[in-house]
Design goal:
By secondary structure, the protein is of the alpha/beta class. It has 17 helices and 19 strands. It has a domain of about 240 residues: Trimethylamine methyltransferase-like (TIM Barrel, Alpha-Beta Barrel). Strands 6-17-16-14-12-10-9 form a seven-stranded parallel beta sheet. β18 and β19 form a beta hairpin. It starts with 17 loop residues before the first helix and ends in a 9-residue tail after the last helix.
Protein backbone atom coordinates (compact mmCIF):
# COMPACT_ATOMS: atom_id res chain seq x y z
CA UNK A 1 0.00 0.00 0.00
CA UNK A 2 1.25 3.47 -0.92
CA UNK A 3 0.40 6.42 1.29
CA UNK A 4 0.67 10.05 0.21
CA UNK A 5 2.76 9.07 -2.80
CA UNK A 6 3.57 11.73 -5.37
CA UNK A 7 4.69 10.47 -8.76
CA UNK A 8 5.67 12.00 -12.05
CA UNK A 9 3.42 10.54 -14.74
CA UNK A 10 5.06 12.33 -17.67
CA UNK A 11 8.24 14.15 -18.66
CA UNK A 12 7.88 17.92 -18.79
CA UNK A 13 9.97 21.05 -18.58
CA UNK A 14 9.52 24.56 -17.25
CA UNK A 15 11.44 27.73 -17.96
CA UNK A 16 9.57 30.06 -15.60
CA UNK A 17 8.10 29.72 -12.14
CA UNK A 18 4.55 30.85 -11.47
CA UNK A 19 5.92 34.03 -9.89
CA UNK A 20 7.99 34.80 -13.00
CA UNK A 21 4.96 34.22 -15.23
CA UNK A 22 3.00 36.69 -13.14
CA UNK A 23 5.84 39.20 -13.43
CA UNK A 24 5.88 38.87 -17.23
CA UNK A 25 2.10 39.28 -17.51
CA UNK A 26 2.09 42.34 -15.22
CA UNK A 27 4.92 43.87 -17.28
CA UNK A 28 2.93 43.28 -20.49
CA UNK A 29 -0.17 44.87 -18.93
CA UNK A 30 1.94 47.86 -17.94
CA UNK A 31 3.20 48.23 -21.52
CA UNK A 32 -0.33 47.89 -22.91
CA UNK A 33 -1.46 50.72 -20.63
CA UNK A 34 1.50 53.14 -20.65
CA UNK A 35 2.91 52.66 -24.16
CA UNK A 36 -0.19 51.30 -25.87
CA UNK A 37 -0.44 49.70 -29.30
CA UNK A 38 -1.56 51.02 -32.67
CA UNK A 39 -4.85 49.91 -34.22
CA UNK A 40 -5.30 50.92 -37.87
CA UNK A 41 -8.92 49.76 -38.10
CA UNK A 42 -11.41 52.55 -37.19
CA UNK A 43 -14.06 50.06 -36.00
CA UNK A 44 -11.55 48.39 -33.67
CA UNK A 45 -10.60 51.77 -32.20
CA UNK A 46 -14.27 52.51 -31.54
CA UNK A 47 -14.81 49.07 -29.95
CA UNK A 48 -11.90 49.69 -27.57
CA UNK A 49 -13.03 53.23 -26.81
CA UNK A 50 -16.50 52.01 -25.80
CA UNK A 51 -14.92 49.34 -23.61
CA UNK A 52 -13.09 51.97 -21.58
CA UNK A 53 -9.68 52.15 -23.22
CA UNK A 54 -7.94 55.49 -23.62
CA UNK A 55 -7.60 56.38 -27.30
CA UNK A 56 -4.94 58.75 -28.59
CA UNK A 57 -5.39 58.90 -32.34
CA UNK A 58 -4.71 55.33 -33.48
CA UNK A 59 -2.99 54.32 -30.24
CA UNK A 60 -5.10 52.42 -27.73
CA UNK A 61 -4.00 52.43 -24.10
CA UNK A 62 -5.61 49.40 -22.47
CA UNK A 63 -6.08 49.60 -18.69
CA UNK A 64 -4.93 46.48 -16.80
CA UNK A 65 -8.41 45.79 -15.43
CA UNK A 66 -9.75 45.44 -19.00
CA UNK A 67 -6.98 42.98 -19.85
CA UNK A 68 -7.72 41.03 -16.69
CA UNK A 69 -11.41 40.91 -17.56
CA UNK A 70 -10.64 39.67 -21.07
CA UNK A 71 -8.47 36.90 -19.63
CA UNK A 72 -11.38 35.85 -17.45
CA UNK A 73 -14.07 35.92 -20.14
CA UNK A 74 -12.34 34.30 -23.11
CA UNK A 75 -13.34 30.72 -23.90
CA UNK A 76 -10.52 28.49 -22.69
CA UNK A 77 -11.95 25.07 -23.52
CA UNK A 78 -11.27 24.86 -27.26
CA UNK A 79 -11.75 21.68 -29.28
CA UNK A 80 -11.03 21.22 -33.00
CA UNK A 81 -12.97 18.61 -34.94
CA UNK A 82 -12.83 16.28 -37.91
CA UNK A 83 -14.28 17.98 -40.99
CA UNK A 84 -16.03 14.86 -42.28
CA UNK A 85 -17.51 13.40 -39.10
CA UNK A 86 -17.51 16.29 -36.62
CA UNK A 87 -15.65 14.07 -34.14
CA UNK A 88 -13.85 16.08 -31.46
CA UNK A 89 -10.13 15.43 -31.97
CA UNK A 90 -7.81 18.14 -30.63
CA UNK A 91 -8.35 19.35 -27.05
CA UNK A 92 -6.35 22.56 -26.68
CA UNK A 93 -5.93 22.64 -22.93
CA UNK A 94 -3.42 21.86 -20.21
CA UNK A 95 -0.27 20.19 -21.51
CA UNK A 96 -1.84 18.57 -24.58
CA UNK A 97 0.53 19.12 -27.50
CA UNK A 98 -0.51 18.82 -31.14
CA UNK A 99 1.59 19.40 -34.22
CA UNK A 100 1.01 20.54 -37.77
CA UNK A 101 2.55 22.34 -40.71
CA UNK A 102 2.95 26.05 -41.32
CA UNK A 103 1.41 28.39 -43.91
CA UNK A 104 2.47 31.01 -46.41
CA UNK A 105 5.89 29.90 -47.61
CA UNK A 106 6.49 31.56 -50.98
CA UNK A 107 8.62 28.62 -52.16
CA UNK A 108 8.44 24.84 -51.98
CA UNK A 109 10.86 22.02 -52.79
CA UNK A 110 9.57 19.59 -55.44
CA UNK A 111 9.90 16.05 -54.02
CA UNK A 112 10.54 14.57 -57.50
CA UNK A 113 13.00 17.04 -59.01
CA UNK A 114 14.40 18.80 -55.90
CA UNK A 115 13.64 22.05 -57.72
CA UNK A 116 12.85 25.05 -55.52
CA UNK A 117 9.90 26.84 -57.07
CA UNK A 118 6.93 29.03 -56.22
CA UNK A 119 4.11 27.25 -54.38
CA UNK A 120 1.10 26.26 -56.48
CA UNK A 121 -2.31 24.67 -56.11
CA UNK A 122 -0.69 21.31 -56.86
CA UNK A 123 2.08 21.76 -54.29
CA UNK A 124 -0.48 22.59 -51.58
CA UNK A 125 -2.48 19.52 -52.63
CA UNK A 126 0.61 17.32 -52.35
CA UNK A 127 1.53 18.83 -48.99
CA UNK A 128 -1.97 18.28 -47.60
CA UNK A 129 -2.01 14.64 -48.73
CA UNK A 130 1.27 14.07 -46.87
CA UNK A 131 -0.08 15.79 -43.75
CA UNK A 132 -3.24 13.69 -43.92
CA UNK A 133 -1.31 10.43 -44.18
CA UNK A 134 1.17 10.94 -41.33
CA UNK A 135 0.07 9.60 -37.93
CA UNK A 136 1.79 12.19 -35.73
CA UNK A 137 0.62 15.22 -37.70
CA UNK A 138 -2.60 16.43 -36.10
CA UNK A 139 -3.79 19.29 -38.30
CA UNK A 140 -3.03 21.06 -41.59
CA UNK A 141 -1.81 24.43 -42.76
CA UNK A 142 -1.10 25.12 -46.42
CA UNK A 143 2.74 24.93 -46.57
CA UNK A 144 2.64 27.47 -49.37
CA UNK A 145 1.13 30.63 -50.84
CA UNK A 146 -0.65 29.52 -54.02
CA UNK A 147 0.87 31.65 -56.78
CA UNK A 148 -0.53 30.15 -60.00
CA UNK A 149 -3.82 32.00 -59.34
CA UNK A 150 -4.54 35.71 -58.72
CA UNK A 151 -2.75 36.43 -55.44
CA UNK A 152 -5.71 38.28 -53.94
CA UNK A 153 -7.60 34.96 -54.13
CA UNK A 154 -4.77 32.66 -53.08
CA UNK A 155 -6.27 32.04 -49.62
CA UNK A 156 -9.49 30.59 -51.08
CA UNK A 157 -7.54 28.22 -53.34
CA UNK A 158 -5.35 27.11 -50.41
CA UNK A 159 -8.40 26.32 -48.31
CA UNK A 160 -10.00 24.37 -51.17
CA UNK A 161 -6.93 22.18 -51.65
CA UNK A 162 -6.68 21.52 -47.92
CA UNK A 163 -10.34 20.65 -47.36
CA UNK A 164 -10.35 18.31 -50.38
CA UNK A 165 -7.26 16.41 -49.24
CA UNK A 166 -7.59 16.01 -45.48
CA UNK A 167 -10.26 15.48 -42.86
CA UNK A 168 -7.95 16.73 -40.12
CA UNK A 169 -8.60 20.16 -38.58
CA UNK A 170 -7.39 23.10 -40.68
CA UNK A 171 -5.86 26.43 -39.69
CA UNK A 172 -6.69 28.88 -42.43
CA UNK A 173 -4.59 32.01 -43.03
CA UNK A 174 -6.43 34.65 -45.05
CA UNK A 175 -5.26 37.77 -46.84
CA UNK A 176 -7.96 39.95 -45.30
CA UNK A 177 -11.46 39.88 -43.85
CA UNK A 178 -12.95 39.19 -47.29
CA UNK A 179 -10.91 36.03 -47.72
CA UNK A 180 -11.76 35.05 -44.18
CA UNK A 181 -15.47 35.54 -44.83
CA UNK A 182 -15.29 33.35 -47.96
CA UNK A 183 -13.38 30.57 -46.22
CA UNK A 184 -15.79 30.60 -43.30
CA UNK A 185 -18.74 30.41 -45.71
CA UNK A 186 -17.19 27.34 -47.33
CA UNK A 187 -16.58 25.77 -43.91
CA UNK A 188 -20.14 26.52 -42.82
CA UNK A 189 -21.47 24.87 -45.98
CA UNK A 190 -19.40 21.75 -45.29
CA UNK A 191 -20.38 21.65 -41.60
CA UNK A 192 -24.09 22.14 -42.28
CA UNK A 193 -24.53 25.70 -41.14
CA UNK A 194 -23.12 28.52 -39.01
CA UNK A 195 -24.22 27.07 -35.68
CA UNK A 196 -22.96 23.59 -36.52
CA UNK A 197 -19.51 24.97 -37.42
CA UNK A 198 -19.42 27.02 -34.22
CA UNK A 199 -20.33 23.95 -32.14
CA UNK A 200 -17.97 21.60 -34.00
CA UNK A 201 -15.24 23.81 -35.48
CA UNK A 202 -12.88 22.08 -37.88
CA UNK A 203 -11.22 25.34 -38.86
CA UNK A 204 -9.18 27.70 -36.75
CA UNK A 205 -8.62 31.32 -37.85
CA UNK A 206 -5.31 33.18 -37.81
CA UNK A 207 -4.35 36.84 -37.48
CA UNK A 208 -0.99 38.44 -36.80
CA UNK A 209 0.08 41.88 -35.55
CA UNK A 210 3.16 43.69 -36.87
CA UNK A 211 5.90 44.07 -34.32
CA UNK A 212 6.52 46.25 -32.50
CA UNK A 213 3.01 47.06 -31.36
CA UNK A 214 1.08 47.59 -34.60
CA UNK A 215 -2.30 46.02 -35.39
CA UNK A 216 -2.80 46.54 -39.11
CA UNK A 217 -6.33 46.92 -40.47
CA UNK A 218 -6.41 43.37 -41.88
CA UNK A 219 -5.33 41.71 -38.61
CA UNK A 220 -7.74 43.73 -36.46
CA UNK A 221 -10.68 43.12 -38.79
CA UNK A 222 -10.00 39.37 -38.89
CA UNK A 223 -9.79 39.28 -35.09
CA UNK A 224 -13.15 41.06 -34.73
CA UNK A 225 -14.92 38.99 -37.38
CA UNK A 226 -13.62 35.69 -36.03
CA UNK A 227 -14.68 36.63 -32.49
CA UNK A 228 -18.18 37.55 -33.64
CA UNK A 229 -18.44 34.26 -35.49
CA UNK A 230 -17.47 32.44 -32.29
CA UNK A 231 -14.65 30.56 -34.04
CA UNK A 232 -11.23 29.84 -32.48
CA UNK A 233 -8.85 32.62 -33.48
CA UNK A 234 -5.08 32.63 -33.13
CA UNK A 235 -3.46 36.02 -32.59
CA UNK A 236 0.26 35.62 -32.68
CA UNK A 237 3.18 38.03 -33.17
CA UNK A 238 6.39 37.06 -34.95
CA UNK A 239 9.15 39.08 -33.34
CA UNK A 240 12.94 39.27 -33.36
CA UNK A 241 15.15 40.04 -30.40
CA UNK A 242 17.37 42.96 -31.37
CA UNK A 243 15.15 43.89 -34.31
CA UNK A 244 11.45 44.29 -33.60
CA UNK A 245 11.77 43.64 -29.85
CA UNK A 246 14.33 44.33 -27.12
CA UNK A 247 17.58 42.38 -27.28
CA UNK A 248 16.92 40.74 -23.91
CA UNK A 249 14.86 37.57 -24.05
CA UNK A 250 12.65 38.71 -21.16
CA UNK A 251 12.01 41.91 -23.09
CA UNK A 252 10.95 39.86 -26.11
CA UNK A 253 8.49 37.98 -23.91
CA UNK A 254 6.95 41.22 -22.66
CA UNK A 255 6.71 42.72 -26.17
CA UNK A 256 5.10 39.56 -27.57
CA UNK A 257 2.62 39.24 -24.71
CA UNK A 258 1.68 42.90 -25.11
CA UNK A 259 0.83 42.34 -28.78
CA UNK A 260 -0.99 39.03 -28.35
CA UNK A 261 -2.98 40.08 -25.28
CA UNK A 262 -4.08 43.36 -26.87
CA UNK A 263 -5.54 41.22 -29.65
CA UNK A 264 -7.30 39.19 -26.97
CA UNK A 265 -8.79 42.37 -25.51
CA UNK A 266 -10.08 43.46 -28.92
CA UNK A 267 -11.72 40.08 -29.51
CA UNK A 268 -13.38 39.98 -26.11
CA UNK A 269 -14.62 43.56 -26.42
CA UNK A 270 -16.12 42.66 -29.80
CA UNK A 271 -17.67 39.38 -28.61
CA UNK A 272 -17.22 38.42 -24.98
CA UNK A 273 -16.61 34.73 -24.46
CA UNK A 274 -15.19 34.09 -27.92
CA UNK A 275 -12.44 31.42 -28.16
CA UNK A 276 -8.90 32.80 -28.28
CA UNK A 277 -5.47 31.21 -28.76
CA UNK A 278 -2.35 33.17 -27.75
CA UNK A 279 1.12 32.49 -29.01
CA UNK A 280 3.91 33.69 -31.17
CA UNK A 281 7.12 32.99 -33.01
CA UNK A 282 9.66 34.57 -30.68
CA UNK A 283 13.19 34.38 -32.02
CA UNK A 284 16.33 36.40 -32.73
CA UNK A 285 17.52 38.56 -35.58
CA UNK A 286 20.62 36.63 -36.58
CA UNK A 287 23.27 39.32 -36.74
CA UNK A 288 25.51 37.29 -39.06
CA UNK A 289 22.88 36.79 -41.77
CA UNK A 290 20.05 39.21 -40.80
CA UNK A 291 17.49 36.37 -41.04
CA UNK A 292 14.49 35.75 -38.82
CA UNK A 293 15.87 32.52 -37.37
CA UNK A 294 13.68 29.42 -37.16
CA UNK A 295 16.49 27.20 -35.92
CA UNK A 296 18.03 29.29 -33.15
CA UNK A 297 17.97 27.76 -29.66
CA UNK A 298 16.55 31.03 -28.36
CA UNK A 299 13.33 30.31 -30.29
CA UNK A 300 12.90 26.98 -28.51
CA UNK A 301 13.74 28.51 -25.13
CA UNK A 302 11.38 31.47 -25.42
CA UNK A 303 8.47 29.41 -26.73
CA UNK A 304 8.90 26.90 -23.91
CA UNK A 305 8.77 29.89 -21.56
CA UNK A 306 5.69 31.20 -23.34
CA UNK A 307 4.02 27.83 -22.75
CA UNK A 308 4.59 28.37 -19.03
CA UNK A 309 2.86 31.76 -19.26
CA UNK A 310 -0.03 30.28 -21.26
CA UNK A 311 -0.50 27.56 -18.65
CA UNK A 312 -0.39 30.21 -15.93
CA UNK A 313 -3.14 32.17 -17.73
CA UNK A 314 -5.01 28.96 -18.68
CA UNK A 315 -5.21 30.18 -22.29
CA UNK A 316 -4.43 27.80 -25.19
CA UNK A 317 -1.12 28.47 -26.93
CA UNK A 318 0.07 28.42 -30.54
CA UNK A 319 3.71 27.34 -30.74
CA UNK A 320 6.39 26.53 -33.31
CA UNK A 321 8.38 23.34 -33.93
CA UNK A 322 9.89 21.12 -36.63
CA UNK A 323 11.60 23.80 -38.70
CA UNK A 324 15.13 24.70 -39.78
CA UNK A 325 17.19 27.58 -41.16
CA UNK A 326 19.22 25.41 -43.51
CA UNK A 327 18.49 25.48 -47.24
CA UNK A 328 18.63 21.69 -47.64
CA UNK A 329 17.49 18.80 -45.48
CA UNK A 330 20.76 17.78 -43.90
CA UNK A 331 22.23 17.12 -40.46
CA UNK A 332 21.59 20.73 -39.40
CA UNK A 333 17.94 20.38 -40.34
CA UNK A 334 17.62 17.23 -38.25
CA UNK A 335 19.27 18.81 -35.21
CA UNK A 336 17.21 22.01 -35.30
CA UNK A 337 13.88 20.32 -36.01
CA UNK A 338 14.35 17.57 -33.42
CA UNK A 339 15.44 19.94 -30.67
CA UNK A 340 12.43 22.19 -31.20
CA UNK A 341 9.95 19.30 -31.28
CA UNK A 342 11.35 17.67 -28.15
CA UNK A 343 11.36 20.92 -26.16
CA UNK A 344 7.91 21.93 -27.41
CA UNK A 345 6.38 18.59 -26.54
CA UNK A 346 7.91 18.69 -23.06
CA UNK A 347 6.78 22.28 -22.48
CA UNK A 348 3.16 21.40 -23.31
CA UNK A 349 2.44 24.12 -25.89
CA UNK A 350 -0.93 23.18 -27.36
CA UNK A 351 -1.05 23.84 -31.09
CA UNK A 352 2.36 23.85 -32.74
CA UNK A 353 2.94 24.88 -36.32
CA UNK A 354 5.66 25.31 -38.97
CA UNK A 355 6.67 21.65 -39.20
CA UNK A 356 8.23 21.40 -42.66
CA UNK A 357 9.64 24.95 -42.78
CA UNK A 358 13.14 25.14 -44.26
CA UNK A 359 15.35 28.04 -45.30
CA UNK A 360 14.27 30.24 -42.35
CA UNK A 361 10.58 29.97 -43.22
CA UNK A 362 10.73 30.76 -46.94
CA UNK A 363 10.54 27.21 -48.34
CA UNK A 364 8.40 24.19 -47.45
CA UNK A 365 9.96 20.75 -47.68
CA UNK A 366 7.87 17.57 -47.48
CA UNK A 367 10.90 15.39 -46.75
CA UNK A 368 11.32 17.36 -43.52
CA UNK A 369 7.64 16.86 -42.70
CA UNK A 370 8.03 13.08 -42.92
CA UNK A 371 11.22 13.11 -40.84
CA UNK A 372 9.49 15.35 -38.29
CA UNK A 373 6.61 12.89 -38.03
CA UNK A 374 9.10 10.21 -36.99
CA UNK A 375 10.75 12.53 -34.47
CA UNK A 376 7.35 13.40 -33.01
CA UNK A 377 6.73 9.72 -32.35
CA UNK A 378 9.95 9.64 -30.33
CA UNK A 379 9.16 12.92 -28.55
CA UNK A 380 5.72 11.67 -27.55
CA UNK A 381 7.22 8.47 -26.22
CA UNK A 382 9.64 10.50 -24.11
CA UNK A 383 6.92 12.69 -22.61
CA UNK A 384 4.83 9.61 -21.82
CA UNK A 385 7.32 9.02 -19.01
CA UNK A 386 7.79 5.84 -16.97
CA UNK A 387 4.96 4.50 -14.87
CA UNK A 388 5.72 2.83 -11.55
CA UNK A 389 2.87 0.47 -10.75
CA UNK A 390 2.70 -3.01 -9.30
CA UNK A 391 2.48 -4.36 -12.82
CA UNK A 392 5.28 -2.29 -14.36
CA UNK A 393 7.72 -2.89 -11.47
CA UNK A 394 7.70 -6.53 -12.69
CA UNK A 395 8.76 -8.16 -9.40
CA UNK A 396 6.87 -11.37 -10.19
CA UNK A 397 8.52 -11.66 -13.59
CA UNK A 398 11.98 -10.99 -12.15
CA UNK A 399 11.42 -13.75 -9.59
CA UNK A 400 10.04 -16.13 -12.21
CA UNK A 401 12.97 -15.72 -14.62
CA UNK A 402 15.68 -15.59 -11.96
CA UNK A 403 19.40 -14.94 -12.32
CA UNK A 404 20.81 -15.89 -15.73
CA UNK A 405 17.34 -16.29 -17.28
CA UNK A 406 15.84 -14.62 -20.32
CA UNK A 407 12.99 -12.15 -20.30
CA UNK A 408 10.36 -12.15 -22.99
CA UNK A 409 9.07 -9.10 -24.82
CA UNK A 410 6.08 -7.34 -23.31
CA UNK A 411 2.69 -8.26 -24.69
CA UNK A 412 1.53 -5.20 -26.64
CA UNK A 413 -1.92 -5.59 -28.19
CA UNK A 414 -1.83 -5.45 -31.96
CA UNK A 415 -4.00 -2.78 -33.62
CA UNK A 416 -7.21 -4.11 -35.09
CA UNK A 417 -6.19 -2.80 -38.48
CA UNK A 418 -2.69 -2.64 -39.90
CA UNK A 419 -1.31 0.88 -39.91
CA UNK A 420 -3.68 2.19 -37.26
CA UNK A 421 -1.92 4.60 -34.91
CA UNK A 422 -3.38 7.07 -32.44
CA UNK A 423 -1.07 10.11 -32.28
CA UNK A 424 -3.13 12.01 -29.74
CA UNK A 425 -2.46 9.48 -26.98
CA UNK A 426 1.02 10.11 -25.61
CA UNK A 427 1.07 6.69 -23.97
CA UNK A 428 0.95 4.72 -27.19
CA UNK A 429 4.21 2.81 -27.53
CA UNK A 430 6.51 4.38 -30.09
CA UNK A 431 6.91 2.37 -33.28
CA UNK A 432 9.78 3.21 -35.64
CA UNK A 433 8.44 3.70 -39.15
CA UNK A 434 11.28 5.45 -40.93
CA UNK A 435 14.51 5.18 -38.94
CA UNK A 436 16.66 2.11 -39.55
CA UNK A 437 18.10 0.22 -36.59
CA UNK A 438 19.20 -2.84 -38.51
CA UNK A 439 22.73 -4.24 -38.50
CA UNK A 440 24.93 -3.09 -41.37
CA UNK A 441 24.21 -6.16 -43.50
CA UNK A 442 20.46 -5.66 -43.10
CA UNK A 443 20.74 -1.95 -43.88
CA UNK A 444 22.81 -2.58 -47.00
CA UNK A 445 20.43 -5.29 -48.20
CA UNK A 446 17.55 -2.80 -47.86
CA UNK A 447 19.38 -0.39 -50.16
CA UNK A 448 21.67 1.47 -47.75
CA UNK A 449 19.43 4.54 -47.80
CA UNK A 450 19.95 7.69 -45.81
CA UNK A 451 17.09 9.01 -43.68
CA UNK A 452 16.40 11.73 -46.23
CA UNK A 453 16.24 9.20 -49.07
CA UNK A 454 13.81 7.06 -47.11
CA UNK A 455 11.71 10.14 -46.28
CA UNK A 456 11.61 11.25 -49.90
CA UNK A 457 10.46 7.80 -51.01
CA UNK A 458 7.67 7.95 -48.46
CA UNK A 459 6.61 11.41 -49.64
CA UNK A 460 6.34 10.24 -53.25
CA UNK A 461 4.47 7.10 -52.22
CA UNK A 462 1.90 9.14 -50.29
CA UNK A 463 1.42 11.59 -53.18
CA UNK A 464 0.87 8.76 -55.64
CA UNK A 465 -1.19 6.38 -53.52
CA UNK A 466 -2.82 8.07 -50.53
CA UNK A 467 -6.32 9.48 -50.75
CA UNK A 468 -8.09 11.32 -47.95
CA UNK A 469 -11.67 10.64 -46.96
CA UNK A 470 -13.46 12.43 -49.82
CA UNK A 471 -16.02 15.17 -49.53
CA UNK A 472 -19.38 14.37 -51.13
CA UNK A 473 -19.20 15.23 -54.84
CA UNK A 474 -21.94 17.83 -54.57
CA UNK A 475 -20.12 19.51 -51.67
CA UNK A 476 -16.80 19.55 -53.52
CA UNK A 477 -18.55 21.04 -56.55
CA UNK A 478 -20.12 23.76 -54.41
CA UNK A 479 -16.74 24.63 -52.90
CA UNK A 480 -15.27 24.85 -56.42
CA UNK A 481 -18.07 27.21 -57.42
CA UNK A 482 -17.52 29.42 -54.38
CA UNK A 483 -13.79 29.65 -55.10
CA UNK A 484 -14.36 30.48 -58.78
CA UNK A 485 -16.82 33.24 -57.87
CA UNK A 486 -14.72 34.79 -55.12
CA UNK A 487 -13.78 38.45 -55.49
CA UNK A 488 -10.41 39.78 -54.44
CA UNK A 489 -10.07 43.20 -52.80
CA UNK A 490 -7.07 45.47 -53.09
CA UNK A 491 -5.54 46.42 -49.73
CA UNK A 492 -7.32 49.42 -48.25
CA UNK A 493 -10.57 48.90 -50.18
Amino acid sequence: MRTNLRANTAVKMNVFTEQQCQELVFAAEEAMWLTGTEFHDPESIEILRKAGCTIDGIIAHIPPHITERALQTCQKHIVLCNSRTGARELFLEGGNSYFGSGPCTPFTRNPYTEERHRATRESVKWATKVLDALPNIDYAMSLGIVQDVPLLLSDRHEFEQMILNTDKPIITVCNDQYGQEDNIKMAEYIAGGEEELRNHPFICLYAEPISPGVHCIEAAQKMVYGARKGLPTIYTPCIMAGGTAPATLAGVMVQGLCESLSGLVLGQCAAEGSPFIMGGVYTVLDMGSTIFSYGAPELDLMLAGLADVAHYLKVPMFGTAGCTDTCVIDEQAGVEAALSMAMTNMSGANLNHDTGYAEYGTTSNLDLVVIADEVLGMARRITAGIQTTEETLSLKEIEKVGPGGRFRAADIPEPEEEGVFEPKNSRVDYQARLVNRGAREIWEKAGGKTLKQAANEKVRDIIENHEAEPLPKATAAKIREMVENAVGHMPGE
